[in-house]
Amino acid sequence: MMKLDPATIARLAEHLENCELQGRDTPKITDDHPEMDWDDAYAIQDEIRRRKIARNARIVGFKAGLTSHAKMKQMGVSTPCFGFLADCFALAEGGECKVSELIHPKVEPEIAFVTKRALQGPGCHIGAVLAATDFVMPAMEVIDSRYRDFKFDLKSVVADNTSAARFVVGGRALPVGDVDLRTVGIVLEKNGEPVAFGAGAAVLGHPAAAVAMLANHLGARGEAIPAGSLILSGGITEAVAVQAGDSLALRVQGMGSVGMRFL
Ligand code: OOG
Ligand code: MG
């Protein structure tokens, strides 16, 4: 079921992507389109993905969002959501993120998965995810909602590719059998000060559960997670606001650390 016509979906996708590319904000789109449903929201996100592919961006993977209570509470929502990752979002490990290209960036500590086999729902579960995982790595996602003051509802944020903006992976890539992703501890540091702490289990009890949910979500839409995909499993803690001059580091127990600087 869809409530919006194809022309409206195309127009909203263009609008949101322009906001992303120009670093300017917008009121949430459900203000003007309260009738919008879930299929409309994902159709707008798909259209943004299609626009990027048409400009030669490569889709490198996916992200799960709002998978921890800390994030759901921070954003005032109660269900996870999913987006895509393009090569142009990636930053080099230890690299620089230009704040001038963004609206109001925030950083999230996450566990990244890289798949060696395709995963498709329905019926995908943690065991299947672990069996299909090549390795896991520390990751920081830079989210940057295109919505004014980071105020949105779930449909608006899905249409906006779940606030995806930049990400960095680094540290040590470990086979998934070499780490207990539930008990693994993380510390996020800003300018050398610890600002957030957590353990993997904050993400749906096990970060692989977020990947399974993603596979089931895609399966319901006739899509799969291809082998070789990078997946961000969702912020373990609340997102931390950053500004030019800040240095961020994420340390993950037994998995080293990943850093980035904001300029
Ligand atoms: C939505 C994206 C959340 C995560 O890891 O929870 C997300 C937002 O909070 O803007 O990426
Ligand atoms: Mg995230």
What does this structure look like?
Strands 1, 2, 4, 5, 6, 9 and 10 form a seven-stranded mixed sheet that branches. A five-stranded mixed sheet has the order 3-12-11-7-8, with no helix packed on it. It is α+β, with helices and mostly antiparallel strands. Strand 7 (185-190) and strand 8 form a beta hairpin. It is 26% helix and 28% strand. The longest helix has 17 residues, at 6-22. 2-oxoadipic acid is lined by residues 63, 65-67, 71, 75, 108, 141, 143, 145, 157, 162-163, 234-235.
Q: Report the strand count.
A: 12
Strand content: 25-35%
Helix/strand-derived category reads: alpha+beta
Distance between the termini: 44 Å
Order of helices and strands: HHEHEEEHEHEEEHEEEE
Low-pLDDT ranges: none
Helical fraction: 25-40%
Q: What gross morphology would you assign?
A: globular
Tally of helical segments: 6
Average pLDDT metric: 97
Q: Report on the biggest sheet.
A: 7 strands, mixed
Rg measurement, Å = 17 Å
Q: How would you concisely characterize the structure shown here?
A:
With 263 residues, the protein is α+β, with helices and mostly antiparallel strands.
